[in-house]
Specification:
Bound molecules: zinc ion
Shape: elongated
Oligomer: single chain
CATH class of the largest domain: Alpha Beta
Helix content: 25-40%
Number of strands: 17
Structural class: alpha+beta
CATH superfamily of the largest domain: Zn peptidases
Strand content: 15-25%
């Protein structure tokens, strides 16, 4: 039985039919639809010579034992955002399953190294606002204390929702055991952006995931009557924030792949007849280079103080979250480039703006590589998310080639 990429597409469609409604995929982690997806997936791997178990963080491991205990890991996530697309995360898992099948048949159930497919639990963090949950437990970067108090929109506590699915947060650290013998990690993912399509390329090599600086910025001015307060007497907090919203484009624009986003802006008192006395903004800055990221953060702070002074306001910053850039493994990047070139004829190296489970695995010190396949119109986290059928097939083939190359690299 050789690799059959068209089967992957058929299985993705099967999963879509099972777990989507008219608004898109509904495989939100720790919900019944997600459990249904996992049950369906278990039925797909049951006829292979594999061992299957869930670890203490709810990650699903399907292991094909090899001649060596050293393991090649291939990962993805069956969970989706609400009203999500059919490919995000699921392509990785089902392409990985196809690669696992190929290894099982080519080596009569015993490949040179152990091959492990992992479906990470709760990559999206859609319900509790905590992304990369399962992979961070695996990597040992998870902080249980911070997450224990989280609740969903209906007030259901994270701890209780996980327990319902058989996962005890206190036992998260036991998931680190799965790192034993891990020699490399591979992940295929849809790009979720417009770059590959604009270049006319089906596949790309991911250099790493960008570091993120995420902050709340609050400008304080003076609430005042919109009729009686002359323009030159105002301390308009929104004016200062608005200047910063435009300035971050220039701050990011100095660097090829950097991005800065002011995604939220709240004004107080927020009525039509008052000058804005307080304005709360959020800033999200990303780059693959830690120096660039630090520079952008510094420049945004300086600009905010300048604009605050110009508008006779003050400004304060508080960090919401940050993560350092995670560059992937140079030798595996080369192998990924070879696999992509052999499959599609050309290749492109690019950073990933979105975070992925691969970043957590790499932070745990496991050599990691990631491959992107083109997204149509750069749209994801949306039911219209799509990729051309021939590109999907190529991505399965390229992942398979990369897996073979990585096995050879591991036994060398
Ligand atoms: Zn994803």
């Amino acid at each position: 039985m050789s690799l059959n990429p068209t089967r992957t597409i058929a299985e993705l469609k099967e999963l879509r039919a099972l777990t989507s409604d008219e608004n898109g995929a509904q495989r939100v982690a720790w919900t019944d639809t997600w459990l249904k997806a996992r049950e369906w997936f278990a039925s797909k791997s049951s006829d292979l010579p594999v061992e299957q178990h869930y670890d203490s963080a709810g990650n699903n491991w399907v292991t094909l034992p090899g001649a060596s205990e050293r393991a090649l890991l291939i990962g993805g996530h069956l969970d989706s955002v609400p009203n999500g697309g059919w490919l995000d995360g699921a392509l990785n898992v089902l392409a990985g399953l196809e690669v696992l099948r190929r290894f099982a048949s080519e080596f009569h159930g015993r490949p040179p190294v152990t091959i492990r497919l992992v479906d990470w639990a709760d990559e999206e963090g859609a319900r509790f606002g905590r992304s990369l949950l399962g992979s961070s437990a695996f990597a040992g970067t998870h902080s249980i204390a911070t997450d224990r108090g989280r609740a969903d929109r209906d007030g259901v506590k994270m701890e209780d929702a996980l327990r319902r699915c058989g996962v005890e947060m206190d036992r998260f650290p036991e998931a680190e055991r799965e790192r034993k013998n891990a020699g490399a990690y591979l992940e295929l993912h849809i790009e979720q952006g417009p770059v590959l399509e604009s270049l006319g390329l089906p596949l790309g090599v991911v250099l790493g995931t960008k570091g993120v600086e995420r902050h709340n910025i609050t400008f304080h001015g003076q609430e005042a009557h919109s009729g009686s307060t002359p323009m030159n007497a105002r301390r308009d907090a929104l004016a200062a924030a608005a200047k910063l919203a435009l300035e971050i484009r220039a701050i990011a624009g100095k660097h090829a792949d950097a991005v800065c986003t002011m995604g939220s802006l709240k004004t107080f008192p927020g009525i039509v007849t008052a000058v804005v006395g307080r304005c709360e903004a959020t800033l999200d800055q990303r780059d693959l280079n830690a120096g660039v990221l630090a520079q952008m953060y510094r420049e945004a702070q300086e600009a905010s103080r300048r604009f605050a002074a110009e508008e006779k306001c003050t400004v304060e910053w508080s960090r919401l979250w940050n993560i350092e850039p995670v560059p992937f493994h140079p030798a595996l990047l080369d192998l990924c480039e070879q696999a992509v070139r052999e499959t599609s004829g050309s290749t492109h190296r690019m950073p990933s703006g979105p975070l992925h489970d691969a970043a957590e695995v790499s932070r745990a010190g496991i050599p990691t590589a990631m491959m992107f396949v083109q997204s149509l119109n750069g749209i994801s986290h949306n039911k219209i998310e799509d990729t051309r059928q021939e590109h999907l097939e190529m991505s399965v083939t390229a992942l398979d080639k990369l897996a073979s190359k990585t096995v050879n690299w591991m036994v060398k």
